[in-house]
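Appendix B. Raw example, untouched.
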Amino acid sequence: MATQRILDFLATRRPEGPCLVVDLDVVRENYLAFEKALPDSRIFYAVKANPAPEILRLLASLGSCFDTASVAEIEMSLEAGATPDRISYGNTIKKERDIARAFELGIRLFAVDCVEEVEKIARAAPGSKVFCRVLTDGAGAEWPLSRKFGCVPTMAVDVLRQAKALGLAPYGVSFHVGSQQTDLSAWDRALKDARFVFQALAEKGISLRMVNMGGGFPTRYLRDVPTAQAYGQAIFEALKRHFGNRLPETIIEPGRGMVGNAGVIKSEVVLISKKSEDDDVRWVYLDIGKFGGLAETMDEAIRYPVATPRDGDETAPCVLAGPTCDSADVLYEKTPYPLPVSLTIGDEVLIEGTGAYTTTYASVAFNGFAPLKAYVI
């Protein structure tokens, strides 16, 4: 839902064209909820979700750490007030010169998922701490992550042994249960794998200290999702089940769960049409689409709530599409979207829950459309 602060901003400022408005009060509430739900875990905000300087500065002031995927994100986090010890270089795919630059900036915590990456870090960031990402199945996630990142637990053991042999500090393991994860038991399955790696390395004289439990914490779109407190309880119980009284240090990396529900995109209906006289499904074209920031509608994985000025009127199914001349720029067609029959050209609509993974997914100027404007209030 759009907060009153967002509605007031749109009513008074009347920004031209599609734009994202993010309410920092909601981001603050989300951070405090994660802190309360998992008081013993360090929070590393996933910068990629929304790197707006205002968001980074707020989170840095609240004590957040930062999960970064590039040197640029490391520099943004430092600029926002984070110290190097509060930054993780969490991408498992890094150029050696970028590792060297991160090391130069003071970063000492790096993600790996293969021996080849360990070798790069040993050369460019000697003595650093590394954690190995373990593959998970992602069942229960609306946006499951692929096999692009991570390795099987038995390989993670070999990767961390090699890190030790090359003078690095084997620090722990990480996993990601899939984005928009609504299955509370997903962390239990992943923590079982983490425990296997801990135990296998302990038998070889290597003591790991940390489990990075990744992101996956959802934001509410069209369906209710469990609270941060529910996730915290489920995760804590799974940690106790697999690690007993010897709990490791833990990290979480919320991105969507931190900023998703803090943002709303204002859009305008450009055209409403049908493909034939007897077609019972209207096509509703907005001034924003996949290339304007709504890339996560790919395969209709994320279904955003859409609020219109005519809500409450009779609805009928629509195909929802963007304005560009690319035939892939269709948001919802497999499962048509119910919108008011009275909706008309020129109506402004609000696309809710769009605080994460929108501005940075927007194209620079496809078809000459400007990148998605953003306001942080």
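End of appendix B.
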